[in-house]
Amino acid sequence: MLSAQTSRRDFLKGSGALVVGFSLAGPLAAARAQTVGTPLKPVTLDEVDAFLSIGVDGIVSVFTGKVDLGTGTRTALRQMAAEELDVTLDRIKLIEGDTALTPDQGPTWGSLSIQIGGVQIRQASATARKALLEMASKRLAIPVGELEVRYGVVRAKGDPTKHVSYSDLIGDREFRLKVDSKAPLKKPADYTIVGKSVPPVDGVAKVTGEWTYMHDVRVPGMLHARVIRPPAMGAQLLSVDESSVRGIKGLTKVVRLGNFLAVVAETEWAAIKAADQLKATWSAWEGLPDMDKLYQHVRNTPIAADEVPLKRGDVRAALATAAKTLSATYEFAIQLHGSIGPSCAIADYRDGQVTVWSSSQAPHWQRRELSMMLSIPPEKIRYIFLDGAGCWGRNGHEDAAADAALLSRELGRPVRVQWMRQDEHGWEPKGPPTLVDIRAGLDANGNVIAWQSEFWIPRRTDVGHGVPFVAASLAGLPHRDAMNPSTIFLNSKPEYAFPNAHVLVHRLQTTPFRPSWIRTPGRMQNTYATEVMMDELAAAAGADPLEFRMRHLNDPRGLVVLKTVANRAKWDSRPSPKKGADKATVATGRGISYIKYENVRTYVAAVAEVEVDRRSGVIRVKKFTIAHDCGLIINPDGVKNQIEGNVIQTVSRTLKEELRWDRSRVTSLDWATYPILTFPEVPEIDMELINRPNDPPWGVGEPATGVVPSAISNAVFDATGVRLRTVPYTPQRVKAALGARA
Amino acid sequence: MVTLSVNGKSHRLDVEPDTPLLYVLRDSLGLHGPKFGCGLDQCATCMVLMDGDAVRTCRVPVSRAAGRKIVTLEGLGTADKPHPIQKAFIEERAIQCGYCLNGMIITAKALLDKKRNPSDREIKQALAGSLCRCGVHLRVIRAVKRAAVRMAKEA
Ligand code: FES
Ligand code: FES
What we know:
heterodimer; A: alpha+beta; Aldehyde Oxidoreductase, domain 4; six-stranded mixed sheet; 19 helices; about 20% strand; globular; disordered N terminus; B: alpha+beta; Ubiquitin-like (UB roll); DNA polymerase, domain 1; five-stranded mixed sheet; 5 strands; about 10% strand; binds FE2/S2 (inorganic) cluster
C-alpha cells in the first residue's frame, strides 16, 4: 500500500516508482501544495531546479517529463546526468513523469527521450556543474581553472586535501539558475559513464517481482472498476437491468453516464463478475466498412487536404521518356499496440481536484485533456506516471485514466480501473491503414529518372493534443472531436537522389477506427512502400539491390550503414530473384532495406534472410542483420536491446498482425484472433553499431522498425520471385500470391 | 475461507471461492510477481509454480489451489538473493518493460527442474506460450541456457 505522503527520505530509499506523494523536507520545501496540481518545485524548462536537486546526502535527484516505457531511458538518462555532473551512477535518482515534480519535456515519443529529453538534462547538469565549480572556487579561494570534480567532490587539482562536496555547496537548496545553453559540456573523449553498457537500473527489481507497476498500486479506500463498452462501436445504451447483478458480493455501484457504463466494487473479482453478468440493451449500429474492401474504402475516403513533401524536376516528362516504367500498390494493415499488460489507472477525485496515476507516455498532455473532460483547471490535476507494460505509443492508459477519473468523481472514492483483454484489443486506438501507389521510371542504363508516390493516410486535426478519450465520447462530456494519428507523413519522401520526383500525400477526412501512433508511425509503412519499390526497380534493371541503392544515394553516412550491413551479412551480390527461385519447395532468399529516420536522423540498414514454404505459405524469418548509426551511443547494450525489440516486434507485425472486425465491432479481441510472434518463431539477430561520439545522440527506439517489413518482402521475392505488397504476409496471402504466379 | 500455501507460508483467506487464484495472490497477498495479462490462458504473465508445475492462475478458482504448494516469483528469490534463473536474466539483461518476465522465469524453473540441459529448441518450445511485446526473446533464451549451466554446476 502506498501512503499518500512519502517523505523525501523514504522516496530516496525507494525504487523511484513509489513516489506517490512527495514532500520536500529541506528548505527547498517552502510549503507550496495548496492544490494537488500545484508544482511542488520549479518545473519550467529554463530552470536548472526543474531538472536537478542535490540533497545534503549527496544524492542527485534528476527530474524528467520523459518516462521509461520499457526502453531503458531510465538507465541512459541517469548516465547522461552522472557523466556531466561527475558523480557516480548510484548517486542519481530519477523521478519521471509527475506533473507536480517534473518539467514538461513533451510526450515520450518519436525516439526523442535521449535526443531531446536527455540533451536538456545534460545541459542543465552542465550548468549546475559550472555553478558548483564557481561556488567551490569562492569557498576554497582557488580559481576555477585549478579545480576538478571527482565523484561529486570539487577539489584542487594538485592538492586533494583542499576539497568541498556538492552537498556542502548546495545540499537541499535550490540553484535558482537559468539553464545556460553555453555551459561547457564534457568532451566525449573524457566520458567514463556515457558509452558504457550499464545494466538496466530496474532489472533486478523487475525479475524478482519487486518492481512496482501501475497495476500493483493500491491506495487507501480504493474501489475496483471494470468498464462495459458498447457491443457495437457506435451503439446507444438503451437500458440497464441492475437486477442482473444484484447479489454479487462486494458490488458497490453500476455507473451509467450516457453511453459510458461501468461497475464498481470492493474487489476486482466482484467487478469482473458484475461486468460479465450485467444485462444492458444497446441499439444496433453497423457503421464500419467491409473489412474485405478496406483499401477500396481508404481510396474512396474524402480527402481533407493534400500535402506535397517533395517536388523535384518534371516527373511526367521523365516518365514519358523512360525505357521502363513500373507501378505498384502497397497496403499496410490496421494494427494494435498490443501491450502485454492491459491499460490501468487509479484516480482520486475529491474537492474538485484529482490525482491520477497511470502509465501514459504523456503525463502533461493528460492533464490538459482531463481538464477539458472534467471541466476543472489543469492546476487542479496531478498526473503521476508509473510503469506499464511496453505501450509503443498512445494506447489505452490514457483512456483508463479518464475512466478512473470519471468513476472516482461519481463514487467520491479512489477508483482503480483495469481494462480486460477485450477492452484493450477492442478499444485501444489503432494504427491506421496505409495505402500507397508508386510509379517510377528507369532509363536505358537502369537508373531511376522518375518517381511518383501517392499516399492515402488519415489527417491530423490538432497538433499539440492527444487522442480523445473513449470515456468523454461515450459519456458526452467535453472533448475535442479530434483525430490524431501523429506525423505519419514522415519518410514518405524517398532518400534517393532521383532527378524527378513527386510525393503527394492525401490526408483523409476519416479512418475506420480512432487512430493513434504505434512505434515508427507512418515512417515504417512509408519506408515499406519506398524500399519495396526500390527493390522492384533493381530487379527490373537487372541490378544487385545493394548496388542499385548505393548508386542512387549520396549520403555518406547512409552509404556507410549499407556497406556495413552488406559486409556483416556476407551479402551475396547479384540481382534478385535468385536462380531457380521458382522451383524449391522450401525457398530461401535475402533482402535488403535502408532508412534515414524521418529523412534527418538515425541511419539503419538491414538484411533479412527468409525461408518460404510453398506448401504451407509460411514464411520463416531466419536472420536479421542490422547496421545502425544513431550518432553518440549512450549505452551500447541498451541500444542493442532496442534494436532486437524493433526487429522482433516488426517481424511480428509484418508476418501476422492485422486487426479484424465486422460491420459493428472489432473481432480481434484476444491473442488467438490477433496472434503475435512467439518464441519458436523469433529470428536470429546480428548487428553492428556505428558510434559517433562527437555527434549528437539520436533516437533508437523506433528507427530499426522502419526497415523490417521491406527487407522481408524483398527477401521473399529473392527466394520465390513473387512480390508481396500487402502486410501482413499471412500463410493464406502468401499461398495465394505464390499460386497466382504458378 | 480458503487456506493457501504460498512461498512456504500458510494463509487463511476470506475470499469468494470462485475468485481466480491470480487476484488472491495479487490483491489479498500483495504478491505482484504474477501479473494480469489476458485472463484467458493465452499469455503466461500470471504463472506460478503449483506443486512444481508452471501453471496459469488467471482462470484457476482459488478453491482449486487449496492444499497445493504454490511458489510465486517472489518465492524463487529476492533482489538480495536472486535465484540462479533470475540472476541469469539480470546478467543477460533479458529485460525491457519486464511485464512478461514472470511467466518466462517460472516456465524456465519448471523446465530446468525436469531437464538439466535443454536445447535451444526445447527452450523455445517450453516458452511458446509466453508472450512478449518488447522483443527480449533472444536474451531470454540465452538467460535460460546460462541458468541451466549454472544450476547443473551447483547441483
Ligand atoms: S493472464 Fe493468465 S495467461 Fe494471460
Ligand atoms: S519485456 Fe515487455 S513484454 Fe516482454
